[in-house]
Specification:
single chain; alpha+beta; SH3 type barrels; 2 domains; five-stranded antiparallel beta sheet; 5 helices; 5 strands
Length: 166
């Protein structure tokens, strides 16, 4: 059983957006518990979702490429500290797809694994990938950083293929 979200905690949605909890509330008619939260990138927007839906697992039949177990996973506690990696992570808390990326022997294979990560990519994963590619990816929204790394991989794949032909 997972703990209920608390004010100030941050969660990552399986589609990779980050949200901060404002409060738990009760629906006035049904008394159903609701989570009130906002997207960190757009703090003016406020959302409410039933607690049961907020805490539910990702529908992996509908989203087979998603590696995140839950719809929302806590990434920062109410005091601002990072949350330990879940036991579903790979070796020493490293996500399994990151390990697969690092083990890939060609840029084509790396690109294929990278594309699988699209909906669960984090800034930490992008930073690790950038280090493995001996490059830097500037701080920007996650979608832009993903695009930058993908362009680097496409370029390296192109030159790897060219280099191996001759």
């Amino acid at each position: 059983m997972r703990d209920k979200p608390r004010k100030g905690e941050r969660y990552r949605h399986f589609k990779n957006n980050e949200y901060e909890i404002v409060a738990l509330a009760k629906h006035t008619e049904t008394l159903e518990e609701l989570v009130i939260y906002f997207p960190v990138a757009r703090p003016g927007d406020i959302f409410a979702r039933p607690l049961t839906m907020f805490m539910s697992e990702v529908d992996h039949e509908k989203y087979p490429e998603v590696t995140q177990l839950y719809r929302f996973e806590k990434i920062r506690d109410a005091e601002g500290g990072s949350v330990e990696p879940s036991s579903d992570d790979g070796l020493d808390g490293v996500p399994p797809l990151l390990l697969e990326f690092l083990d890939a022997e060609t840029y084509e294979a790396k690109l294929e694994v990278f594309d699988k990560m699209r909906n669960s990519i984090t800034d930490d994963i992008i930073d690790a990938i950038a280090v493995s590619l001996d490059t830097e990816v500037e701080k920007a929204p996650i979608e832009e950083r993903y695009r930058q790394v993908r362009e680097i991989l496409l370029m390296q794949e192109k030159y790897e293929t060219t280099r191996l032909r001759g």
